[in-house]
Design a protein that fits this description.
With 313 residues, the protein is α+β, with helices and mostly antiparallel strands. It is 17% helix and 50% strand.
Length: 313
């Protein structure tokens, strides 16, 4: 089954690569990058995922994600091309961070941290289609600094301290290639659209493929520099081949605690997006289904708040 997932993912990535390459040559891609770098507008983007923002004092599972991205975007006619780089950190813990190491074991979620940085290119069209492809390089395990990040943040916020980072997964360097393709958009009504998409990741940290549907309503814009104010609902279903935050790194061994992932995972997100002038914001509630095979769905499902802030001087 893992080979089948990877075949699907390879097809998704090949479709995105064909759009990435543009002229079909490395020199054409580099020339496009130079043009966007010189003529494009700069943006600073901060993303925050956190379940504590929902006043959950247990934390648990995917408990925190933080990312910063710097991008250059150039609009040419009905199309906008973006080149960007990003850095981020994701934290995963057991269902209750107050549990001591002696009580951490299957089927509870392992402690894991993923620290990464990467590059990506995105092409967005005025008709709603987009293609994004990128690569992340990073580190899974103690080298990712999850213990220090969560402990420091909780001390500042006077929240319970995590007790079992000593049982996190082992160190492993990671590479993840990812792609997201939305070839079409439908407009069933004025100020409303529906966009299906395909996505995938391939690497020794995450390997999966997914399909999603995004419904938006309000003052819509499909180009990143245009004003917008709308609500949205996104649904996503993924087939999982490998998840190192549950299974440990693909090449690591002697992990103190790992579990098997569920092969199919769903996610729903509802929120609002606002863009005016140089400023932008996004706030949404995300509900993710259980990711652990042996864990009851009533326990493994999780919710967190997603915030995004952008500044384009």
């Amino acid at each position: 089954m893992r080979d089948l997932y990877r075949q699907y993912l390879a097809g998704c990535i090949l479709l995105a690569v064909s759009h990435w390459a543009g002229a079909g040559t490395l020199s054409g891609l580099l020339a496009d990058y130079q043009t966007v770098r010189v003529e494009g507008r700069s943006s600073h983007i901060i993303d925050i995922d956190n379940d504590s923002l929902l006043l959950n004092r247990k934390d648990g599972f995917y408990t925190s994600g933080m990312r910063y991205a710097y991008t250059k975007t150039l609009e040419r006619g009905s199309e906008a091309t973006t080149f960007g780089w990003r850095i981020g950190q994701e934290l995963y813990t057991a269902s209750d961070i107050k549990l001591p190491p002696s009580l951490i074991g299957p089927p509870n979620h392992p402690y894991a941290a993923w620290l990464y940085g990467g590059l990506y290119r995105e092409v967005a069209a005025a008709d709603g289609g987009h293609t994004r492809i990128g690569i992340d390089l990073g580190c899974l395990g103690p080298c990712a600094g999850g213990d220090w990040t969560q402990t420091t943040l909780h001390r500042i916020l006077h929240q319970p301290l995590p007790q079992a980072w000593s049982k996190q997964v082992r160190n492993e360097a990671g590479v993840v290639l990812y792609a997201d393709v939305a070839p079409i958009r439908w407009s069933p009504a004025l100020h409303m659209d529906v966009t299906p998409s395909l996505s995938g990741r391939f690497g020794n940290i995450f390997t999966d493929v997914g399909a999603g549907l995004l419904v938006r309503a309000g003052q819509l814009s499909n180009l990143p520099t245009k004003s917008a104010f709308y609500g949205f609902l996104r649904t996503d279903a993924r087939a999982i081949a490998y998840n190192a935050t549950l299974q440990g790194g693909y090449f690591s061994s002697n992990n103190p605690h790992t579990v098997d992932p569920k092969r199919f995972v769903g996610e729903a997100e509802a929120g609002v997006v606002w863009n005016r002038g140089p400023f932008g914001a996004r706030m949404s509630l995300v509900r993710r289904s259980n990711e652990i095979r042996e864990l009851a769905n009533s326990i493994g499902a999780q919710s967190y708040l997603h915030l995004q802030f952008s500044y384009t001087p």
